[in-house]
Amino acid sequence: MFFTALIDSIITFFQEHLLFTLAFAIVLLFLLFRKPKVFLTISAIVLLLLGILYLISDVSSTGVTYKEKLISKSVDVP
Which residue blocks in 1-78 are alpha helix, DSSP H? Predict the structure, then answer.
């Protein structure tokens, strides 16, 4: 599925770029302790966008599978 491949590539990116990951974590911790409202707002927006991305990828993969079945049925019909 597209979503799992995306998550795997993000995890691989963070594992390969350790300095960027540490800087990103420090910024997130800073926001969490200094400005929790901004941190929670950003977290909510990110979670909403991830949910939308998952929904779009799930719907599109279902559509592609259905389209391939229809094409194979139309090719098989004499």
Answer: 2-16, 18-34, 36-76
pLDDT in tens, 35-66: 999 889 989 999 999 889 888 877 776 666 66
Query: The tokens of 36 are what?
Result: 């929790």
Output DSSP code: residue 55: H
Q: Which domain does 55 fall in, by range?
A: 2-76
Give the residue carrying structure tokens 């594992």: 15
Which residue type, as a one-letter code, is found at position 22?
Answer: L
For the cut 70, the answer to whether the pLDDT of residue 19 exceeds it is: yes
Number of domains forming the structure of the chain: 1
CA angle 4, 50, 56 (to 5 degrees): 75
pLDDT for 76 equals 60
Q: What are phi and psi of 77, to 5 degrees?
A: -75, 130
